[in-house]
């Protein structure tokens, strides 16, 4: 199986000696879903954002889709990675001044130099897949949070990425809107998309993930299959975290 | 009780304002009677009999005061419009350099903004005039064949010549205002949420495309109002032209007041014309603002 992401000893320090990332190593193979869990401030968002160069690191090595980057952060290599990796954010980050369809066609037209019509056709197909094609002409502000997040997924898919990164995709949603987004993500996983998902959704992690990575204070505490992690976590710290999560 | 107090207060303010206006008018009338000039605009048609170094339209000393005032207006407009363009261009470049990722450029532009904003405009105008243009060594600073030349005679650009007075004013007003415009641009760019930058970057868009397609359209609504007030300031500041001897509307008015003693009429002309010019600027900017707001149909 082909590895899509290989991280080796990623370390990122802040000024007061605090470490956002502390010797993080991991491998994600093609077609697999990795769920990253951990308390807030544990470095999980920082970690996922290093994979497409939104976040820098001071030490270690990263290999994404065969493109190697190190602490020097070669801009051209990062740009290459970004063209092949999609990202979905907690706050959606749709472009409010562009229509839903324009949000989706922007990158294919300007990055991949595809024709506007072709990009629109594929954009409509993606919106249809997400069940929101009737909103194509609307603007992000006119949509609910769940619909906006599905647009964001369609936008990330428009470049036909080989890896999708999700940074707490349901944390900003109303509870009754969470499932429509998780369902869309489940379908993507079933289609064989390689995904790294930072989330607190235990149900999603149990059903969909191949591995769960648990982080605390910038360190990887444990990496287990969901079966093991949720029923018989190896570490005391993981069990404590899961207890607190279930109380909610 | 509350209501009656409010009415009483408003009545008081009314009385005070009216008394002040009354005193002013009374003072004015007394002065007009004393000088024996009366209040009229007939003098406008009399020959001005002073020379003007710069005139966009034909002008001789036998032309009327009205014609001299028009020439002054054209001179003012010429310097306002051209320094407005220069200030916008410079301000935009510096504003972007200030917010950009290049730390050296950021430091240079921060220094530029600080120096320009902490020194008086009048001083800067004098600097450009006496040190910048009149003080040029060998009389020529830059000369590119016959296309572009900066000397103590001013600026020459493919046959167009600008006097040292005009050039000093252009640079003084342009540079001074550009520092403020740069800050307005910076504020506008910073008003766009970080997530928008991350979103376009994560899609593989270049910084340039992201700025043009994503950041600038969202920054403009925050930039336009600040830009308008800088344009209005620039128009008003252009009256400092008199300091470097450029014959703008204010300088010509000053000469006419000296010759005719028609201070009241001259100031009425001056004030109303600036009022109209600034209304024109702010209304045009308001129209641009409306077009931008209407073009984004969200919210």
Describe the structure in your own words:
The complex is a heterodimer of chains A (248) and B (299). By secondary structure, chain A is of the alpha/beta class. Chain A has a domain at 94-161. Chain A has nine helices and ten strands. Chain A has helices spanning 44-50, 75-82, 100-110, 116-129, 145-157, 175-190, 202-208, 226-232, 236-247; strands at residues 3-13, 19-29, 33-37, 59-64, 67-69, 85-88, 163-167, 195-198, 211-216, 219-224. In chain A, helix 3 packs parallel to helix 5, helix 4 (116-129) crosses helix 5 and helix 5 packs parallel to helix 6 (175-190). Chain A is globular and about 50 Å long. Chain A starts with a strand and ends with a helix. By secondary structure, chain B is mainly alpha-helical. Chain B has a single domain (65-295), classed as MetI-like (MetI-like fold). Chain B contains nine helices and four strands. Chain B has helices at 2-35, 65-99, 103-117, 121-133, 164-190, 194-202, 207-237, 249-260, 263-295, and strands at residues 140-144, 148-151, 154-157, 160-162. The interface between A and B is medium-sized, with 27 and 21 residues.
Describe this structure in a few short sentences.
The complex is a heterodimer of chains A (248) and B (299). By secondary structure, chain A is an alpha/beta fold.
Structural class estimated from helices and strands of chain B: mainly alpha
- CATH architecture descriptor of chain B: Orthogonal Bundle
Portion in beta strands of chain A: 15-25%
- Mean pLDDT across the residues of chain A is 94
Q: DSSP helix count of chain B?
A: 9
| Major sheet characteristics of chain B | 4 strands, antiparallel
